[in-house]
Amino acid sequence: MLLIVLAAAGLSHFLGFEATGGAVVGALPAGLPALTLPTLPNLNVLGQLLLPTLVITLVSFLETASSAKVDNEGRGTRWNQDQDLIGQGLGKIAAGFSGAFPTSSSFSRSALNLYAGAQTGWATVFSAVVVLVALWVLIPVLRHVPQAVLAAIVVAAVLGLLKPREFARLWRIARVEAVIAALTFGITLAVSPQLHWGVLAGVLMSLSYFLYQRLHPRIIEVGLHPDGSLRDRHLWKLPPLAPDTYALRMDAALDFAAAAEFERNVVEYLALHPGTRHVCLFAQPINHIDSTGVDAFLKLSKQLREQGVLLHISGMKLPVEKTLLQAGWQLADPGHRLYRTETETVTALRELPQTSQA
């Protein structure tokens, strides 16, 4: 590629491409940047730089993640994001002492490395050496390189990384994510060259979808499947786990996002089924609980006790149990019963006396 660039520069110079109105790279500053000691700007300037800095940081990290994902997938290796971020941070610090732009990974540069068959980190070292030589020797030559040649090199390299079939594959796996990906791609093209708006749009859409999922956790009433597992009672058309019993499982953390939905689910069921005397929570999937979840759990426990409903808890994990105990919840309480395994829970529920008609 370097030979192609030099050959294009030579032809452009001898044919007078720039003189005929052709777009070339033009004059570039030569030599290495001088070292300088950065000064702290005043508060007004810092306020003006805050938002752009956050945007640049976000775009830089996402570009790094995208490049690393494609690169490591091709090599079958694992991306060490911590090491990558350390390297970027050191590069940005060095840029601050030389008056340079903030450094970052480059999708096009990574694509060129892959296109050229780079296999190790020595390719980056070699690229840095070539840049140093170019700054000292080749700046006058690069002036005559047509911009179309540089664009063609980048496009030829990046084309190999584009995978349009991934949209169809993503549509089969998760349609909402496929729509987000397509909208992000479309917005990025529409606002180019200001690519950060496309990145921000994609991040906001992804976060919104993530928050929606957290606010609507999967809560099911379970029944005993013929194979011995506990499954969605309504999906598999299973009988109730036990008479007068509401047995539920929430496949999410009991935190600020899911607490309201968890409480609402139990309260509405009890309102529709006043004969319920037992509520059984299969808590194995709940691996985290925060202060909002603790408040919701304690409030629901108190409400069940006042209604004469016995709470059964199966498989509560130790981190959740510790958090509840720190909030004042008691293990030995007549208002609830604890079980360690699903088998123990099912056996205990089926031995309960029937006090009403289901």
Helix content: 55-70%
Counted up, domains total 3
Characterize the biggest β-sheet. 6 strands, mixed
Question: How far is the first residue's CA from the last residue's CA?
Answer: 77 Å
How would you describe the shape? elongated
Instruction: Report low-confidence residues grouped into runs of 5 or more.
Output: none
* Strand-pairing-aware structural class: alpha/beta
Structural Rg: 31 Å
User: What percentage of amino acids are in beta strands?
Assistant: 5-15%
Number of strands: 6
Mean pLDDT: 88
Strand order of the largest sheet: 2-1-3-4-5-6
Overview of this protein structure:
By secondary structure, this protein is α/β, with parallel strands linked by helices. Helices cover 56% and strands 8% of the residues. The relative contact order is 0.07. It has three domains: 2-161, no CATH class; 163-215, no CATH class; 219-350, STAS domain (Transcription Regulator spoIIAA). α2 packs parallel to α4 (107-115) and α4 packs across α6 (147-159). It has helices at 2-15, 43-75, 81-96, 107-115, 122-142, 147-159, 165-173, 175-191, 195-215, 259-272, 291-306, 318-326, 342-350, and strands spanning 219-224, 230-232, 245-250, 278-282, 310-314, 336-339.
Overview in brief:
The protein has 358 residues and is an alpha/beta fold. It is 56% helix and 8% strand.
